[in-house]
Amino acid sequence: MSIGGYIFYFILLLIIPLWAQFKLKRTYGKYSKIRSTSGQTGAQVARIILDANGLQNVKVIESRGMLSDHYNPVTKTVALSSHNYNDASIAGTAVAAHEVGHAIQDAEDYSFLRLRHRLVPIVNISSNMSWVFIMIGFFSAWSGALLIGIVLLAAGVVFQLITLPVEFNASSRAMDQLLSHNIIRNEEERHAKKVLSAAAMTYVAATAVAVLELGRLILIYTSMNRS
């Protein structure tokens, strides 16, 4: 690859996640200012859906930091950032329902979610070690070390790929729950979908970057062996 090609490649790696983050912040910022017709806060929405699905054991808590919303399968808690927890907005409603979607996945033993959880300790180790071997391979021209790094990095890519169906499924469940319990109405459905789609794009972007980088390293490894 030429120097110009490398520059274009790394600019692309930079632009993809930045674009996804920009789209999320813009979409979330817009719909976090629009009050939901139900008048229910994110915490109330989460509690309604959890109780309706027999998940009274799952707690809804407030977390610090913007868009720090998540579901913890170990502690069985849905954590919502302060704005989503306390305010009654379209964005907060969509995000709360999405995180509850993960809780429902957990309760139903959703296969992709279970697999992702099992991969977490492996990926935590492989992600940190992969670049050590990759750098050794680069500086020493030892293709064996580079191959080890690629294999370790591939575990992280597999994790990213598995995350996609988990997130899309949680969003699908969220919309079903919001509609079936009459939490959103009319135009709110389209707005909630926009929020969830923007959030999903951050995962798609991260996966795309990971796949591109893995592909680049595989090409480098192939070239080293040919040499």
From TrEMBL:
Superkingdom of the source species: Bacteria
InterPro entries on file: Zn_peptidase_2
Keywords: Hydrolase, Membrane, Protease, Transmembrane, Transmembrane helix
GO biological process annotation, one example: proteolysis
The keyword Transmembrane is annotated on this UniProt entry: yes
Example of a GO MF term: peptidase activity
Residue ranges of the TM segments: 6-24, 145-166, 195-221
Entry-linked PANTHER family: MEMBRANE PROTEASE YUGP-RELATED (PTHR36434)
A Pfam family the protein falls into: Zn_peptidase_2
Name this protein carries in UniProt: Zn-dependent protease
